[in-house]
Fold this sequence. Notes:
alpha/beta, 33 helices, binds N-[(phenylcarbonyl)carbamoyl]-beta-D-glucopyranosylamine, pyridoxal phosphate binding, EC 2.4.1.1, carbohydrate metabolism, Pyridoxal_P_attach_site, pyridoxal phosphate
Amino acid sequence: MASADSQALKESMQGHLFFSQAKSSSLATSHDHYRCLALAVRDRLLKNWVDTADTYTREHVRTATYLSAEYLLGPHLENNLVNLGLVEAAREACASLGLSLEELIAEEPEPGLGNGGLGRLAACFQESMATLELPAIGYGIRYEFGIFRQQITPHGQVESTDPWLAHGNPWEVIRPEWSYPVQIGEHTVIGVAYDTPILGYGVNTANTLRLWSAVAPEAFDFASFNAGDYTRAVLRKMQAETLSKVLYPNDELDQGKRLRLSQQIFFVSCSLQDMFRILRGQGLEVTDFHRKFALQLNDTHPAIAVAELMRLLMDEYGIDWDTAWSITTASISYTNHTLLPEALETWGVELFEQLLPRQLEIIYEINTRFLRMARIRYPGDSQILQRISLIEEGPQRRVRMAHLAVVGSHHVNGVAELHSTLLKQNLFADLARIWPERFTNVTNGVTPRRWLAVANPPLAALLDEAIGDRWRTHLEELQGLAAFADDSAFLERWQAVRDLGKQRLAQYMRRELGVLVDHTSLFDVQVKRIHEYKRQHLAALQIVERYLRIRAGEDLPPRTFVFGGKAAPGYALAKLIIRLLVGIADVVNMDPAMDGRLKVVFLPNFSVSLGQLVYPAVDLSEQISTAGKEASGTGNMKMALNGAVTIGTLDGANIEIRDCVGAENFFLFGHTAEQIEQLGHSGYHPMPWIEQDPAVRQALELIGSGYFSEGDRELFHPLLASLTSHDPFRVMADVADYRRAQNAVDEAWLDRGRWARMSLHNTMRCGFFSSDRSIADYAERIWKVGRVPVQTSAGAPAP
Ligand code: BZD
């Protein structure tokens, strides 16, 4: 029998087909039906959204504002259905209209407004802040084109654009009344707010994600207008609007582009002006800014906020330097996401001077005062002053954005224990000596709603039955699985659920890629951005070794290696790693000698939606970065939460995952961060490691012989040369121990009961890795923002 919810949803969808899509069912496409359902769902969350804004305004609440250049949101529809508790009603409504809910969900283009972990973390955090009923606003950029689409051809990665807005976006509301001018060089650009609701789970809270879109003011370049050069004026207007056109696809690589600095000041200035508008609207004083708002900088991309907030306080509101500085440093805190030197943002002072002369002047003044203080602390030590200065001296003077962020913040955090320790010991050692209490750790987390409830319904149902449904908001309740850890009937069901996830992925690979894989084989998965430090090439070498062993007659248990991830378009070596994986897949998958024991698949265009399909299907989670390089990782958490066992180094959050799930449920290998550093000090060279390892030598030779490149012996030369001459990420130092750990995996896999218990223990002990825990920690220790429950008013218009 249809529920009242499903009947109402059905009628609402029918209404929207007529009133919003202006169609009858005879002309309606699947996408029309998706939009109708999305709009019907939106109607049902508007009340929460409006009431939340109302509550926050009425109660003058202290608010966290999250500043991030990236939000890798993933599709909204299914997540909103889960958070509203309307999945079943929507399924019934669709069925009664002859539609499939799954097909409509698949119609939504995903907002890919981020590169990888950093952007996805921002999205998990928004959802957790709403679920914890914390007053919060997310600020960012409404890129017209998100992260590029990746196609995989025989030649490797090919990029194309992501026109995610082509069919419109039912989840956003434009707010032209909230738009602000931003001066960049000679020009003024206007930022217009587009708001998207972020629903909490099981609460009335719906917070706002506010993304800025650039438009040129009408009076833009009116000198040209007056001179009669109308076309030129319009062209200049278009140029201004390119500001929010495209997301830069560089992950862990600083490019220093003019447009990128413009994007940063653009969204930061709009966001700060918006905060002043809110402050004033509530009758508060400008000097109350730090009492009203806690600003979190997601890496250095919004670090210009330090100078821009100072500028607004002084130039727009007439506040003196010292008061402005106290307000600024009492408001801002900064999260670092990388230790890699090549990823640290710096801007040439010349470019800065052209685009942001006043902000540069303020940065110089901040630096002068900061160095004056430091000189008193370290008299006569000019070395330390050079190292901590906000300005890097050299052939070209550059502004160090990370230093600006540290100096302008009350708290600075890393994203996993090891990372935060290394920040204090290395990257920010001098600054941490000056302000030890400023530095702290907040280990990352992921939202259990999207990454378990949405991604893995069969597992969610089994958990509900076994331990009740509170795990969705109290993930530590997964501990309750302990009662079933030795229950063989339960372990059978556990395996059956995991099997479903693997079958689903296998079907996708057959349907979309034409690759047949045995879903009972061990699914060994590495999905993440392609980067040398993440060492996809270490996995590639291991696969080539396996291939040779099977060809030599060894009987290894069947494995399917699955890769996915994008390479920055300008990162030649990362693209070559993709080319190698594709080359290996082509040879291995065609070789009858493998006899079902080895398959390799590269999944094109890895995304949030694909992640939802992949994570539940993972048996073995590959987390094999060079120790000391991966700040945290969050895919490692998603996989373990869904019951994967990790093979990994002591890097990032792997360490904490292993501590939680137990060493006996984790395959550890490789040098520690400390040992890796030692290797460097004692003049590391890969050759001695290679010489004493015939297996890896053979693998390298086979790759060099053209075996995986249709006879082309040159193709992989740059990669092989790097591995055998410098090996910057110490692949050769870890290859033998990785092999040992992989052999241990083979053995463990043969004992299916043992594997099922290891899998269950991973899920059971992963409660710590909820983003709710991360956010509660930020709110209590860093933001001092408290819970504000939202009462929904009666009498609001019903959909
Ligand atoms: O941030 C990642 C780190 O590499 C991960 O270890 C960590 O888990 C996540 C979340 O804290 N960093 C990124 O994803 N970085 C970027 O995407 C990025 C984007 C633009 C410019 C520089 C880096």
